[in-house]
């Protein structure tokens, strides 16, 4: 019986060896990503990766001064009352210090650090604390709210700093192992692990350029601006947001891909600003219903609805009704993906756009150019003896509309803000985001024209305001009596 058992064992080992030999021929020798093959491999540690990367992850502390008054009344902001009672009306101003914390990553050894825009937004003072507990005041090099990224610089004065190198985030796959390093809740540097749960998340509503890496590595408040690492220790992304109903981690975190981060850092160091290529067209996601109406076998791509005359898409020969399938060889499934991929390209060249026109597959080459600013924005605060005094207005162009997150097809004079002392604010008929459509039946197209018309308008006037596509017609007599319809 013992000999028979040994014979079976030898036969089993021979069969197993033959199988493994066969597998070695079938599987590519260069396969890099493997699941653990033994208990020994499962027991392996992330410590070497953390030891190398952790010194390049920093804590960021910000401070800003908030001025408030002890009591408030609507009369305190009225110029008439201030004229007689002085600027002290409403009590002495009080100062309150507002502090916040976050994380950052050193990406250049001369002290260049990347973090989130929302970590340093409005800060009067930014302090960076290194892993070795040294602290330095940081200079803000670039603050890009549209990607929710900010680039800082510190001067340690004593040699090169540790860095984390950028990975090619286009090579990430769902299921890849990742580590998140940051300063959650201010408890100190913390490492969590997980996997890439999803890619190309575009409905997170954190920034204009939405194309996030989703991970289940625990990410909590204070982790913002911290590193998402791959197993090679390179930077896959900057942790920026979580999906949570309680404020704590529910295993759904989002990171800005490293390719976008690298683009913003490079732009900050080269020009001190970010100028992105422009698509120059609008589109919508091809749903199953749209796919059926177009005779497609499956949903996918972006259906072009409207094209800006003379824009890059128009110059490339893209037409209304085309379905965009890919940009630079990368599949797209919604307009945000097109925006992201084009936004990573360098100005001056061309990018390949694959599209479906009827039953033909075409590839066109689109010039990479910035959105046009025509007319110039001409940001102006209106002055004079009229109810629009105190309004900040500007001309809208495709470039400025893109910055404000508005449609490239909107045009005219947009209201940016309304001063607290403006008569029209007290009337409550004009809001930021409105368009000044007309004054006394004269159609308004530019800020210069608006100023000229208001100079002769007097206290009694009619005017039209366009709000979210709806025209509101109003009339004013003096500074108090008005009507709107």
Notes on the structure:
It is a single chain. 21% of the residues lie in helices and 34% in strands. The chain is of the alpha+beta class and 485 residues long. The chain has helices at residues 2-26, 39-42, 47-53, 79-85, 117-120, 258-270, 288-294, 312-315, 335-343, 398-404, 423-427, 447-455; strands spanning 57-69, 93-108, 112-115, 125-129, 135-137, 139-144, 149-153, 177-182, 190-201, 212-215, 227-229, 235-242, 253-257, 281-285, 302-307, 323-327, 330-331, 350-357, 360-367, 380-381, 391-396, 412-418, 435-439, 442-443, 461-467, 470-477, 481-484. The protein has 3 domains: 45-274, Thrombin, subunit H; 281-367, PDZ domain (Pdz3 Domain, Roll); 380-484, Pdz3 Domain. Mean pLDDT is 82; it is low at 18-30 and 79-85. A hairpin with a 5-residue loop joins strand 11 (227-229) and strand 12.
Brief synopsis:
By secondary structure, the chain is of the alpha+beta class.
How would the blueprint of this fold be written?
Layout: H1 2-26, H2 39-42, H3 47-53, E1 57-69, H4 79-85, E2 93-108, E3 112-115, H5 117-120, E4 125-129, E5 135-137, E6 139-144, E7 149-153, E8 177-182, E9 190-201, E10 212-215, E11 227-229, E12 235-242, E13 253-257, H6 258-270, E14 281-285, H7 288-294, E15 302-307, H8 312-315, E16 323-327, E17 330-331, H9 335-343, E18 350-357, E19 360-367, E20 380-381, E21 391-396, H10 398-404, E22 412-418, H11 423-427, E23 435-439, E24 442-443, H12 447-455, E25 461-467, E26 470-477, E27 481-484
Antiparallel strand pairs: 1-2, 1-4, 2-3, 3-7, 4-5, 6-7, 8-9, 8-11, 9-10, 10-13, 11-12, 12-13, 14-15, 15-16, 16-17, 16-18, 18-19, 20-21, 21-22, 22-23, 23-24, 23-25, 25-26, 26-27
């Amino acid at each position: 019986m013992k000999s028979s058992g040994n014979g079976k064992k030898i036969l089993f080992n021979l069969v197993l060896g033959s199988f493994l030999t066969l597998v070695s021929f079938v599987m590519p020798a260069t396969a890099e990503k493997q699941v653990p093959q033994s208990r020994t491999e499962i027991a392996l540690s992330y410590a070497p990766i953390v030891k190398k990367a952790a010194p390049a992850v920093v804590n960021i502390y910000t401070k800003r001064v908030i001025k408030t008054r002890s009591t408030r009344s609507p009369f305190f902001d009225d110029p008439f009352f201030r004229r007689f009672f002085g600027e002290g009306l409403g009590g002495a101003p009080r100062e309150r210090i507002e502090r916040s914390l976050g994380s950052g990553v050193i990406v250049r050894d001369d002290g260049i650090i990347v973090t989130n825009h929302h970590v340093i937004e409005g800060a009067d003072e930014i302090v960076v604390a290194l892993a070795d507990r040294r602290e330095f005041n940081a200079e803000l090099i670039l603050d890009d709210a549209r990607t929710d990224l900010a680039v800082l610089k510190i001067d340690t004065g004593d040699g090169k700093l540790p860095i984390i190198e950028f990975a090619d985030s286009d090579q990430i796959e769902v299921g890849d192992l990742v580590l998140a390093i940051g300063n959650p809740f201010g408890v100190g540097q913390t490492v969590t692990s997980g996997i890439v749960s999803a890619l190309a998340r575009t409905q997170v509503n954190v920034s204009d350029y939405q194309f996030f890496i989703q991970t289940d590595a625990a990410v909590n408040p204070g982790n913002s601006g911290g590193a998402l690492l791959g197993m090679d220790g390179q930077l896959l992304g900057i942790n920026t947001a979580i999906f949570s109903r309680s404020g704590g981690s529910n295993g759904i975190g989002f990171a800005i891909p490293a390719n976008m981060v690298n683009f913003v850092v490079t732009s900050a160091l080269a020009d001190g600003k970010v100028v992105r290529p422009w698509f120059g067209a609008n589109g919508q996601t091809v749903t199953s219903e749209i796919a059926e109406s177009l005779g497609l076998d499956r949903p996918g791509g972006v259906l072009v609805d409207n094209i800006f005359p003379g824009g890059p898409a128009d110059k490339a020969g893209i037409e209304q009704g085309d379905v965009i399938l890919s940009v630079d060889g990368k599949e797209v499934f919604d307009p945000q993906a097109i925006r992201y991929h084009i936004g990573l390209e360098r100005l001056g060249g061309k990018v390949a756009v694959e599209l479906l026109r009827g039953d033909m597959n075409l590839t066109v080459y689109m010039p990479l150019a910035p959105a046009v600013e025509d007319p110039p924005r001409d940001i102006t605060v209106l002055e004079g003896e009229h109810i629009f005094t105190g309004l900040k207005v500007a001309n809208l162009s495709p470039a400025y509309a893109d910055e404000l997150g508005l449609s490239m097809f909107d045009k005219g004079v947009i209201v940016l803000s309304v001063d607290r002392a403006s008569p029209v604010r007290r009337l409550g008929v004009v809001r930021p985001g409105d368009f000044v459509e007309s004054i006394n039946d004269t159609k308004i197209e530019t800020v210069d024209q608006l100023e000229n018309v208001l100079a002769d308008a007097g206290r009694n006037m009619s005017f039209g305001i366009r709000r979210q596509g709806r025209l509101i017609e109003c009339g004013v007599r003096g500074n108090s009596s008005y009507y709107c319809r």
